Amino acid sequence: MKHPDQYRGEETIVLGLAKSGVQVAKVLHERGALVTVNDKKDREQCPEASELESLGISVICGGHPDGLIHEGVKLVVKNPGIPYSAAPVQKALELGIEIVTEVEVAYHLCKAPIIGITGSNGKTTTTTWVGKMLEAAGMNPIVAGNIGTPLCQAAQEASEDNWMVVELSSFQLKGTQDFRPKVGCLLNVAETHLDYHGDMRDYVDSKAKLFANQEASDTAVLNWDDPYCRELVPYMKGMILPFSMTEELLQGVFVRPSYVPDVEDNLKRTIIYRDYTESETVISEVDSIGLPGRFNVENALAAIAIAIAAGADPGVLADTLASFRGVEHRLEYVEDKNGASYYNNSKATNAKATTMALVSFKQPIVLIAGGLDRGSDYMELIPILEGRVKALVALGETKDKLASVAKLAGLKTVVTVDNEGSAASVLQKAVQEAAALAEEGDVVLLSPACASWDMFKSYEERGRIFKEAVHNL
Predict the structure, then answer these.
(1) Which GO terms describe its cellular component (predicted)?
(2) Taking Cα atoms as reference points, which of 87, 129, 134 lies closest to residue 112?
(3) Cα 250 to chain center, whole Å?
(4) Domain 105-323 in this protein, CATH class
(5) CATH fold of 4-100
(6) What is the pLDDT of residue 354?
(7) 96 three-state secondary structure
(8) Per-domain residue ranges of the chain
(9) Is 332-471 a domain of CATH 3.90.190.20?
(10) pLDDT at residue 293, rounded to an integer
(11) Sheet arrangement for strand 34-39
């Protein structure tokens, strides 16, 4: 797309009245574009409409009217969650009109170098962690996008002295054209969002757009243990800085195990950064990381690599590794009840995320799972359920699928909760069922392996209701 300044006097359509849509509409309007914002929700569900109309921006709620998209429209900026199968998007494609997401608009506005972080799991934790690391290094980070300030707003406020640290979804990246981060990171790839993308190829291709415009002076941070990430190596134009839990890399960030005599488990694991001259820096001991779970070690390795690629001194990162305590709804400790520990991992919206949460605990687990049915069969959970999960409490659209998988895994205790009543009451009942099954020393874990939209507005709402239910036991 052109720079937003170049749409003065031209008709632009913004699809979706979420935070990003409101900010994009304001940006384009301030630059003289003729902006219409459209949302299929009814007017009473669009509180932002009045503010935009007071600025002189046209707002249409309650559906997508015929004629909204026509040959005179020069740009469509769509909410990332709106599928490409939606009627106005299809019409824009038919007419050859540019379709982008907020990320593309923000990129053209932003004076600060950008760090883009994507992946199926761990995006928010890693993005937040990078922000903390750059802050400790005195590099003036702005954490924006899906977390924090809307990206277009932050982009306008940023200067060349800042670093913009941005969490990016496949939905957002699919709608980019010129977007070029100084540092791009792909954390991992799991089978998810196939209802939106149609197949894994489109999903991976959308993630890979993070690197499409990088040049030799840019850096691509890749998970060397993930085959999808390694597939992309031949297409990379920038420098590659890998990270690995399992392999000692020629260059990159990795874990080195070493044996220590007269210690109970005889094993010490150290995080090493090896630069392009093969000079090594010891960053930290793995046991010093402030977050539990193997997947958080991977997130830590990624965050270290990103911070180093941005220019942070490796020697200042250890304190942030130790002090960071994570993000709400991501393996978040809630409290102990009757000797059992309760954890909120509502952000686990796919089977891989739930798998990573389950391997974080050595204690027996009572798992609460289930939610929106996106067509997955969840068979990949069988190996991790065996011997690790003592009971499953299933709810939502996928409760019967998950119950069947649990029985195939040999679980003797499987409870399905009827989806009757309000979403809050169903989840509260699930928590009560789990509490009745939990014994002293157990973990009760909400890790749904599914999106929340069958019952809740968001995974955040689901997590908050879970925590309230635990507190009220």
Answers:
(1) cytoplasm
(2) 134
(3) 29
(4) alpha beta
(5) Rossmann fold (3.40.50)
(6) 95
(7) coil
(8) 4-100, 105-323, 332-471
(9) yes
(10) 77
(11) 58-61, 34-39, 11-15, 73-78, 98-100
Torsion angle, alpha carbons of 297, 281, 115, 250, to 10: -80
Contact between 52 and 28 under an 8 Å Cβ cutoff? The reply is no
What is the identity of the amino acid at 6? Answer: Q
The amino acid present at 77, given as its one-letter code, is V
DSSP assignment string, 131-179? HHHHHHTT--EEEEESSSB-HHHHHHH--TTSEEEEE--HHHHHT-SS-
Structure tokens at 410: 């040999």
Q: What Å distances lie between residue 119 and 173, 208, 259, 334, 432, CA to CA?
A: 11, 10, 33, 26, 34
* Helix/strand/coil percentages in the chain, nearest 5: 35, 25, 40
- Which CA distances in Å does 224 have to 240, 250, 312, 430, 450? 10, 12, 22, 38, 26
Binding residues for ATP: 119-125
pLDDT at residue 194, rounded to an integer: 64
Q: CA of 325: how far to CAs of 126, 129, 345, in Å?
A: 12, 9, 14
Pick from 59, 99, 93, 56: nearest CA to 75: 99
User: Which pair of tokens denotes residue 291?
Assistant: 């977050």
Judge whether 390 and 364 are in contact, CB under 8 Å.
yes
Residues of the chain with pLDDT under 70: 191-194, 259-266
Could you tell me the two tokens for 420? Answer: 């009757």
Per-residue DSSP letter, 235? G
- CA dist 128 and 133 (Å) reads 9
Q: What residue type is 193 in one-letter code?
A: H
pTM comes to 0.80
- The whole-angstrom separation of Cα 83 and Cα 78 is 9
**Biggest CA pair distance of the chain:** 76
